[in-house]
Amino acid sequence: MKQSRSLASGIVALIVATVIFILPFLFIALQAVKSKSEASRLNFALPKEWLFWENLVAVVEARNYQLLLAYFNSTVITVFSVSILVILSAMVGYVMQRRQSRWNGVAQVALLMGLMMPPAVVPTIGLLQSIGLFKTMTGMILIQVAYNISFSTLLYRSFIATIPRDLDEAARIDGAKPWQIFFRVILPLLKPVTVTNVVVQSIFVFNDFTNPLYYLPGRENITVQLTLYNFQSTYTSQYNLLFMNILLVTIPPLIVFIFFNRQIVTGMTAGAVKG
């Protein structure tokens, strides 16, 4: 009886996953290889003529190879944002977990507010303009760090709780300084949660649409998600090129997620039970 229920649950889960994840991707892939007239019908019919290479070249060459510039900008923002997030949030999570003080409660409330409160766009733009970082890659990197540091810090704090304090004490007895304890003892043990954080945050930052739209305007600052505007207008839309663009933007994060799926689950659950 239990085996039949497990089998039925697995079949239902597979069907739901197919409907939610596979069918939309299949729909995008079909429209991406059609002609403009066929793609405008927005159906699952097979194309009369497969135009994968033609549409791919058209998307890459659009607006003087703007997609390549967008890939470069998105990669730069992602690499620097995630690098800062990993180091900064790991340090904050370590201090909050290991050093109990009256400020821990304040920091905990600040982290929860960072998770719950929506970003204030207009005041943030005013702040960036006042310090000269509006429309700059540096400003966009700092925005991504500020918006995602709460989640990353809580993730690291939960994982650090599973690491015995005896390691800290042993290193301290051997004469290690606080920064040496963190970088040489604690940080190497954070590999599972670090992989999780890097993958999750990279996918989020790379696929971010709203923040670059608000804080990084300008053709030279375009990111991959903003290239979707290239094939849309008030009167007409080139759906075949639009979906080819979506396909090209979706594939890199999808590949990363597929290869690191097991590490993501391991890192997310490692701090669930305190050792």
Automatic annotation (TrEMBL):
Q: Which GO terms describe its cellular component?
A: plasma membrane
For this protein, the record's PROSITE patterns field holds: ABC_TM1
Span of domain ABC transmembrane type-1: 71-260
Subcellular localization, as worded in the UniProt entry: Cell membrane
Which Pfam families does the entry link to? Answer: BPD_transp_1 (PF00528)
Q: What is its main location?
A: membrane
Name residues in a coiled coil: none
Membrane-spanning residues: 7-33, 70-94, 106-128, 140-160, 181-206, 239-260
Q: Does the keyword Transport apply?
A: yes
Highest taxon listed in the record's lineage? Bacteria
- Give GO terms for biological process: transmembrane transport
Q: How does it sit in the membrane?
A: Multi-pass membrane protein
Keywords on record: Cell membrane, Membrane, Transmembrane, Transmembrane helix, Transport
Q: Which PANTHER family match?
A: ABC TRANSPORTER PERMEASE PROTEIN MG189-RELATED-RELATED (PTHR43744), LACTOSE TRANSPORT SYSTEM PERMEASE PROTEIN LACG (PTHR43744:SF3)
Question: Which family is this protein grouped under?
Answer: Belongs to the binding-protein-dependent transport system permease family.
Q: What is this protein called?
A: Carbohydrate ABC transporter permease
